[in-house]
Design goal:
Layout lengths: L5 E2 L20 E8 L2 E8 L5 E7 L5 E3 L19 E4 L2 E5 L6 E6 L2 E4 L6 E9 L4 E8 L2 H7 L3 E8 L5 E5 L4 E7 L5 E7 L10 E6 L10 E5 L6 E5 L5 E5 L6 E6 L2 E4 L19 E3 L5 E7 L2 E7 L5 E3 L6 E8 L2 E8 L2 E8 L5 E6 L14 E7 L3 E8 L6 E2 L8 E5 L13 H7 L4 E6 L8 H5 L8 H15 L8 E6 L1 H12 L5 E5 L5 H7 L7 H5 L7 H7 L12 E6 L7 H13 L4 E6 L9 H19 L15 H7 L1
Parallel strand pairs: 1-32, 33-34, 33-35, 35-36, 36-37, 37-38
Antiparallel strand pairs: 2-3, 3-4, 4-5, 6-7, 7-8, 8-9, 10-11, 11-12, 12-13, 14-15, 15-16, 16-17, 18-19, 19-20, 20-21, 22-23, 23-24, 24-25, 26-27, 27-28, 28-29, 30-31, 31-34
Length: about 650
């Protein structure tokens, strides 16, 4: 803050961050890898309606687009996808989001269809060069399959690279992931699990010999069970199978040696995150026999080297979020971000120097304009502690009027078992630079704080998460950091449910904004996709035995208790939380004359990816808070029409 700062109401500051920065030359980075001096990654482009493009970066820094315009290199297995690309020597394969078919990239922007025309989806591919094939997870959506199984069918399959023919290698489990071939090509390892589990509830790591004809021999259980989470199986160059497990309450690294399970690390840190998508890589093998790994604790990531004897050496890097590790000789490639550094593809050289290969956001912010989050601990219900990232309002050109405090926007991550992102988040900075404070809550159930913390949410969704969001807001208000009379809550997906539940079942928030949030839990348990179709059994209880719990915690069934204004934003193509779910909420609000606005975005699904939707949704949210809290935004944006707001004020 400088002596020349102007005084203006919190929330009305003119920001150095334009709203267009949400999409202006911005991309979303994923699936980074380094092979033979070349670097690869996917980038989602809002200016191409959110399509993902495969990029190859040559040794000289030249970036080559490998998939043509109009093609979306994305998988829809489990709806969340991941593992949509494969690069193995000259073999480059990508998944088509629209059809689900796999394509071979034969030249930049030239594709050849590989798999037959069926309602099949593929993910998590691995190249079995000895048998000239791919091994992958297939999700079968053929009508006949759905009719016979009662739902989509998941299997491990082999895909012949000469003919495109597909054959089943393993079936019978409800879900499969992470097929990995041993270095000598003799053995396949994979994960499988069953309803009602999500991966972090319990998975089984299996291995089977690969026969000369490519068939699998009898499978053997290595580790895991229906109650033990195993993640990221990976073979070392010496043919030792490594994986992550949590026998001591934290996801640490283990390995199988001569049929025995050995603990490699034993630290109060998480070496893997929740398996919401395929293809996650948070540890990789180094040439000297060590392991490079990402260790998460206290809401932050740290890159560490694990020596062959188990010793751990932190690597000093200016990043708090790290993913997508790949080792290519003496260089290491990964994706990383920090509070003042946008997500980027980073190259770490053997001498310890780093180079940015691609930034998700080309505009590097001035340090003085960035709100640096403080990782806070605060008391919550049951004499427990919860966590979050607190972002104070920050703008070098403005201060708030004396004696006033900023409005607070409370949010939380989507996916109850995810974690708060501590890297540069343009959306948060757009709020803080305009005079809002933001609290991003890592409520009980979040990953990164050990198994006991994650298990807090079991049967308690809609209670623990809401309590922790309320507790965080009260903690900041009691410390005199935010205005306790101007508290908003926002969120998307699972966080959208927490938002609606907080509005329905507490009186602690004065406004709320939900993006594709869940309002009626009965409908979600009936209508959602296979991957999450039994998720609510662990979060709420088995349906219909726990029907009363579903009724009691469904915010749209208790809309008469919502008195604060609500903004509902929804993608028309969302298959995870369908449009009908949003409109049930809106209808309930309308019937009770609760102030609200509803915006539907054609062509968008679960998470807005197109330029127009991203910009309009944020402008609408700014206009919404400004009207509810009674100030004029500095931005020239289209005012949002909020139904019943004037009527509500007249009643008050």
């Amino acid at each position: 803050m400088t002596s020349g700062s102007m005084t203006a109401p919190f929330g009305s500051w003119a920001s150095p961050f334009r709203i267009e920065r949400l999409t202006d030359r911005v991309v979303f980075l994923g699936e980074s890898r380094a092979i033979d001096g070349v670097t690869w990654w996917l980038e989602g482009r809002p200016d191409e309606r959110g399509r993902q493009v495969l990029i190859r970066r040559e040794n000289d820094g030249t970036q080559v687009r490998m998939t043509p315009e109009g093609f979306n290199a994305r998988s829809r297995v489990h709806e969340y996808g991941g593992g949509a690309t494969l690069v193995s020597g000259d073999l480059i394969v990508v998944s088509d989001f629209l059809t689900g078919r796999l394509h071979r990239v034969v030249a930049p922007e030239r594709l050849e269809v590989l798999t037959p025309e069926h309602e099949w989806r593929y993910a998590d591919m691995v190249h079995d060069a000895a048998h000239n094939r791919l091994i992958a997870v297939r999700e079968d959506h053929e009508p006949a399959t759905v009719a016979s199984h009662g739902e989509w069918n998941n299997e491990l399959v082999a895909i012949d690279l000469a003919t495109g023919g597909v054959s089943v290698l393993s079936g019978g489990a409800d879900f499969y992931a992470a097929p990995r071939i041993s270095p000598d090509g003799s053995t396949l390892a994979w994960l499988e699990w069953h309803h009602p589990n999500m991966p972090w509830d319990g998975t089984e790591l299996k291995v089977a010999p690969i026969g000369a004809d490519g068939s699998l021999g009898e499978a053997r259980l290595v580790a895991g069970s229906r109650t033990d989470w195993i993640s990221q199986p990976r073979w070392s160059p010496a043919g030792i199978l490594y994986f992550a497990a949590e026998p001591q309450g934290w996801m640490n690294l283990c390995r199988e040696v001569d049929g025995r399970i050995e603990t490699v690390t034993d630290f109060e840190a998480e070496f893997v995150g929740p398996d919401w998508v395929f293809g996650l890589v948070t540890f990789a093998f180094m040439a000297d026999g060590g392991i490079l790994a990402v260790a998460r604790s206290a809401g932050r990531d740290q890159l560490v080297k694990i020596d062959p004897d188990g010793g751990l050496t932190p690597i000093d890097l200016p990043f708090t979020e790290i993913a997508g590790l790949s080792i290519d000789g003496d260089r290491i490639v990964f994706r990383a971000a920090a509070p003042d550094r946008p997500n980027s593809v980073i190259e770490l050289a053997g001498d310890g120097t780093t180079k940015v290969l691609r930034r998700a956001n080309p505009t590097v912010p001035e340090r003085e304009d960035v709100s640096m989050p403080e990782h806070i601990e605060f008391p919550t219900t049951g004499d427990r502690t919860a966590f979050g990232n607190f972002y104070p309002p920050t703008n070098r050109s403005f201060i708030g009027p004396a004696g006033t405090l900023p409005p607070l926007i409370v949010t939380s991550h989507g996916g109850p078992t995810a974690a708060a992102f501590s890297g540069f988040a343009t959306g948060f900075q757009l709020f803080t630079s305009r005079g809002y404070a933001v609290l991003d809550v890592d409520y009980g159930g979040s990953t990164g704080y050990g198994k006991a913390y994650r298990k807090r949410l079991e049967l308690q969704w809609g209670i623990v998460d809401v309590d922790d969001c309320v507790a965080g807001a009260k903690y900041l208000a009691e410390r005199g950091l935010v205005d306790g009379d101007r508290l908003a809550i926002r969120g998307g997906s699972a966080s959208g449910f927490t938002t609606l539940a907080a509005l329905a079942f507490t009186k602690d928030f004065d406004a709320g904004c939900t993006y594709f949030g869940i309002g009626d839990l009965r409908e979600f348990v009936k209508d959602t996709h296979k991957f999450e179709s039994r998720y609510l059994e662990s979060l709420l209880g088995k349906w219909p035995e726990a029907k009363q719990v579903y009724l009691d915690r469904s915010p749209s069934l208790h809309a008469e208790q919502i008195t604060s204004p609500v903004l509902v934003q929804q993608g028309a193509e969302d298959k995870i939380v369908p449009q009908s779910e949003a409109e049930r909420i809106v209808d309930a609000l309308f019937e009770r004359h609760v102030p609200h606005a509803y915006l539907l975005y054609p062509g968008e699904d679960h998470g807005f990816r197109g330029h127009d939707a991203i910009i309009r949704s944020f402008e609408a949210e700014l206009s919404f808070y400004a009207q509810v809290f009674g100030f004029e935004p500095a931005d020239d944006i289209e005012p949002l029409e909020i139904q019943f707001l004037a009527e509500s004020r007249a009643r008050a």
